[in-house]
Structure formats: C-alpha cells, structure tokens
Amino acid sequence: MKNYDSAVSLCKRMELEGIRHRVATLNILINCFCRLGVLSFGFSTLGKMFKLGIEPDVITFNTLINGLCVQGKFAESVTVFNEMVRDGYQPDLITYGTLVNGLCKIGKTTEAIRLLKKMEQGGFQPNAIVYNTVIGSLCKDRFITEAFNLFFEMNDKGILPDVFTYNSLIQAMCDSQKWEEVKILLSEMVGRGIKLDVCTFCILVDAFSKEGMVSDTQKLIEEMIKQGIEPNIFIYNALIDGYCLRGEMDKARKVFDLIINKGYVPDVFSYSIMINGYCKARMVDEAVKLFHKMSDRGLTPNTVTYNTLIMGMCQVGRLCAALELFEDMVACGQVPDLMTYSIMLDGLCKHGHIHKASELFQGMQKNGFQLNIVHYTVLIDGMIRAGHVTGAKELFSRLATKGLRPNVYTYNIMIKGLCKAGAPNEAYELFRTMEKDDCLPNDCSYNTMIRGFLQNKDTSRARQLIDQMVGNGFSADISTSAMVVDLLLSDGTDLLRSGKVDTSEKITGADVK
To answer: What is the pLDDT of residue 504?
Structure first.
C-alpha cells in the first residue's frame, strides 16, 4: 500500500530533527506531492532544492513532467521539458517517453513524431513502448500510412514489435474493413511467435460481430478457450450484438443465458444490446421483459437503454408506452438527451400526435437543446401529415431567423404539403426558390411538383417540368408515370403528343409494360 501522506510526514520529521535532505529524498517527496495531486507543492520542493544548493537530476524533472501529464497539463509539461534542456539538464529515455505519451493523448501526434526524431538526434534509441504509443495514436487518428511507415522503420532498426504494436494496427485494419491486411498481420504475429492476447481477441470479435460474421466470431472464441484465455463479458457482448444485427434473436438469447450460467453477470451494455435486438425485430414485449429484469437484478438502465426501448415502442405505434417510459426515465433520475427528445418527436409526429409533439418541441427549446434542421423538418412533416399546413408554413418561415437553412427533404415535404392543400402555385414558387438557396431539387422534388400540377389538371406546366426533369437526368417514379397514363386514358390530353416526352424510358428510365 502506497502511503504518500505518511512519506510526506516523515520528510517533515527529518527536517525537524536536522537530518539533511539529499536529492533522492526530495525526489521522493516531489513524487508524493504529484501522486497526491498537489503539483504546486512539488514545484515548491524544486525551488527548495535550489535554495539548499541541492542540484536536481533528471529524475526530479521526469517526476514533475509525469505529474503534469497525469493531470492533463501537457502544455505545461512541454514547457518544463524546454526549460530543463535550456538549463543544461540532459533528458533521458523516460523523459522522452513520458512526453511522447502526453502529446499523443491530446492528439498532437505530429509533435510526438517530431520529438521522436529529436530523441534520436540526442543519442537515444526509442524503444518498443515509445513506438507503440505513436503508432497507436496514428491509428486512432486514421493516419494508417504513417502508422505503417513507423512500423516498418521500427523493424528496420531491429526494434521488435510486440502484441501491443500489432493490436493497434489490427484495430485500424478492422475499422477500415481491410480483412486481407488483418489476416497478414495475424499471420506475421504467429510467425514471430507473438501470442494473441485478450485485447487482440476482443478487437477481432467486436469487428467480426459488427459485420455479422458470427461464425468467424464463434471460431475465435473457441480458439481463445483452446489457448487458455477465458472470454470476458466484452467478448460475449460482441457475439450477442453480432446475432442481434443478423436478427437471430434466439441465438442471441442463448448466448445471453449462457453467460449467466457461466457465472458472469450481464452488465447494462449486455441488456441494452438484447433490448435493441428485440426492438429491431419488433419483439417489444420481450424487450420490456428484459428491461424489467434489469431492475430486478439491481441494474439501472442508462440513457441508451431508455432511448432504445422508447424507439422500439414508437416504431410499433405504442406511443402511450413510449411516453410512460419517457416519464419513468425522468423520475428515475436519468436525464433525457437530445436523442431521447428526437426519438419522441419523430414518433409523435409520425403517429399524428401533433399537439404533444409541439409541446415536446417547445420543451426541447426551453431545455437549451441546440435544435437543427432535422428536428424542424420532423415537426414540419408532422404538421403536414396532420393537415396543419398553415402551422407548417409558419414554422418553415422561422428557419432563417434561427440561422437554419432548409435542406432538400424540408423543401420536398413543404412542396408536397402545399400541393396536397391545393396550392400548386405556392408550391412551385418554393420549388423555384430551392436553386436560389443553393439546394438543388432531386428526383423526389420533381416528381412531387409534377404530381401537384397533374392533380390540379395543369398539364401544360407538368409537361414543361417533365422535360426539365429528364434534361437534368432524373426519372419519373411509378406514381407520376401512372398519373400521366391515367390522364391520357381518361382525358385524351395531348400531354405527350409532341414526342418530346413519353411514358416509356424517356420518363422512367425503364420500359413500362
């Protein structure tokens, strides 16, 4: 047990008894202050060393630099390093290693590489730990080429990579879905006699499961057990997630029950994965049962768990249950996040509860959430669906004052709503505004506007817009094509008599039979 307070008290007692401090003793004292999180006392001790005529050594500075890095004060640690070098103190491998690690933690990998080169210029050969730190940071930042260049440089200098080196590179290749490269790296590991550790297996199991490659995941787990490595809860969670992604809920449940039988305690993440799987499979009753089991086992559902189940309820139209969960979430002390509100807003709008949706929207604003164009589009769509076109127009007109620009989906919803409300001219004005607003109409925009004209018997403008649509490389969808054919058959209109547009591939991009 490390009793730093006791060590500090002992140092003070030494002073009281007139025992002269040495550099080693004061270094220990500085380390104690750093470990206790009182760096200011550590620097005071450094000042005391100078006053007493005791020359600090590299260990003194290393301790202070490490203390600063532990507290996340990386800029200050670099300053101490620079002052140390300026005053003639020679850094060692630990100094460089500590700083490289600190720079990588704050994402300053370029500066870390620069320090690596400076280290070599100073006559110090970086070891595998230093290289691993930089390679790991480069991989996290997705600078894969630079990471491999450093890996090759490491090999060229005779510094043998270890399991940590390979784990970083394998993780990067899995994230990039470069499975052949993963195989090559694994083959290299085996060839060099480097054993896969639990971290390697976790990386592979997680990656394979996310890709739905559950048979490969099963083989990996079998290999782990053969090598005497007991799969942990993370491994089993990844396997469960893989089955859930494939919709194989029976198999997912078998693994879930298996881990309980093996003596593992499923965590909140385990339950959340299963609940998400059941909700996606529209088996919400099973999801609810598991949700209640969490509480029975003393686990508190987190925001992700609530969001998942609320979304599941909304998807199957059980809005009352979703609202109850939302209220229960608040009562249990879980703070709904932007995702929670977004799910509820979408569910209420899609199922016609526009009054509740508007109240929720106002609540989101009052709670200080930064609402984006997606939230406004969802509510506008809900209003249109509920026939509140005037309210949708008012909300749309307020977008500019909120610093938001409508996207193509927002425009399409408004155009459709106006056409449905019998206002094709107003819809067309909005359609023409799109280009001025740097929002080019897509195939849906054209089809919606054309149908609006056809519904209002404005075949002339429909024809012009069809020509424009085809000229811009878009095609009529089935609904638009059907309307054109119906009008031809019922009214004998000369809509297509010019030969510029017909109901075959000129409109649809495919033969209509």
So the answer is: 46
pLDDT higher than threshold 70 for residue 505:
no
**CA-CA-CA-CA torsion sign (124, 130, 132, 137):** negative
- As a 3-state breakdown, the chain gives helix, strand, coil percent values, each rounded to 5, of 70, 0, 30
d(CA 406, CA 441): 12
At 480-494, the pLDDT tens digits run: 888 888 776 765 555
Specify whether the CB–CB gap between 45 and 33 falls below 8 A. Answer: yes
Compute the distance between CA of residue 102 and CA of residue 99 in angstroms, rounded to an integer: 5
Taking the alpha carbons of 237, 238, 241, 243 in that order, is the dihedral positive or negative? Answer: negative
pLDDT, tens digit, for every residue of 209-229? 888 888 888 888 888 888 888
Q: How far apart are CA 79 and CA 139, in angstroms?
A: 27
Centroid of chain to Cα 118: 35
The predicted model scores a pTM of: 0.69
Q: Residue 283 contacts by C-beta under 8 Å, 6 or more apart in sequence? A: 249
> What digits encode the pLDDT tens for the residues 108-134?
888 888 888 888 887 888 889 999 999
427 contacts: CB under 8 Å, gap ≥ 6: 414, 415, 416, 418, 419, 449, 452
Residue 499 DSSP one-character state? S
Say which amino acid occupies 459: T
Ranges of H-type helices in 157-302: 163-175, 179-191, 198-210, 214-226, 233-245, 249-261, 268-280, 284-296
